[in-house]
């Protein structure tokens, strides 16, 4: 069975976007981006909500000259994507399908049939998966900034047992925490 991985880049106070919806403070430097690429390489399918998909679809045509960005674009393009949205009329990227409803049973079936890891992104969709007990691993990249409010990386009311599997500190002060869900 494939593992479902929730990954987020968050401020030290736990937000993936500030109160204005900005996350420009979360842009990874080259060292962090290279590490993200290493973590993302085994992902076979990305699960997104509509807003996260709109952000990530940049990688379909990204032409950034930086080697780490080009590598990430290749990783992203090679994976399947499932977008859960009731309002998005269509998807515009290759290897992507649109689903109207996110259901725990559907994700469980996907985990059972997938030969490789699955990543779920975005606070709303990731939160639903966490609350439903579907997530097997959590990767948090904590950025040394406090934004004071906005979109939380983890949903209210979530109680999950975790075991620290790995941690890494980067020169920029970003800290990566990798947890296995234990319950």
From TrEMBL:
<dbReference type="InterPro" id="IPR024072">
    <property type="entry name" value="DHFR-like_dom_sf"/>
</dbReference>
<feature type="domain" description="Bacterial bifunctional deaminase-reductase C-terminal">
    <location>
        <begin position="3"/>
        <end position="174"/>
    </location>
</feature>
<dbReference type="InterPro" id="IPR002734">
    <property type="entry name" value="RibDG_C"/>
</dbReference>
<dbReference type="GO" id="GO:0008703">
    <property type="term" value="F:5-amino-6-(5-phosphoribosylamino)uracil reductase activity"/>
</dbReference>
<protein>
    <submittedName>
        <fullName>Deaminase</fullName>
    </submittedName>
</protein>
<dbReference type="Pfam" id="PF01872">
    <property type="entry name" value="RibD_C"/>
</dbReference>
<dbReference type="InterPro" id="IPR050765">
    <property type="entry name" value="Riboflavin_Biosynth_HTPR"/>
</dbReference>
<dbReference type="GO" id="GO:0009231">
    <property type="term" value="P:riboflavin biosynthetic process"/>
</dbReference>
């Amino acid at each position: 069975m494939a593992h479902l991985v929730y990954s987020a880049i968050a401020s030290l106070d736990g937000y993936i976007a500030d109160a204005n919806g900005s996350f420009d403070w979360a842009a990874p430097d080259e060292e962090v981006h290279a590490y993200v690429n290493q973590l993302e390489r085994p992902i076979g399918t990305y699960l997104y909500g509509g807003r996260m998909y709109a952000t990530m679809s940049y990688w379909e045509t990204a032409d950034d000259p930086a080697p780490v960005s080009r590598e990430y674009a290749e990783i992203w393009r090679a994976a399947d994507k499932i977008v859960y949205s009731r309002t998005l009329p269509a998807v515009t990227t290759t290897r992507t399908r649109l689903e109207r409803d996110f259901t725990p049973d559907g994700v469980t079936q996907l985990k059972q049939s997938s030969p490789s890891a699955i990543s779920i992104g975005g606070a709303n969709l990731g939160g639903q998966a966490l609350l439903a007990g579907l997530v097997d691993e959590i990767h948090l990249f904590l950025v040394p900034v406090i934004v004071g409010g906005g979109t939380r990386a983890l949903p209210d009311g979530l109680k999950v047992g975790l075991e620290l599997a790995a941690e890494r500190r980067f020169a920029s002060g970003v800290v990566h925490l990798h947890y296995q869900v234990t319950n």
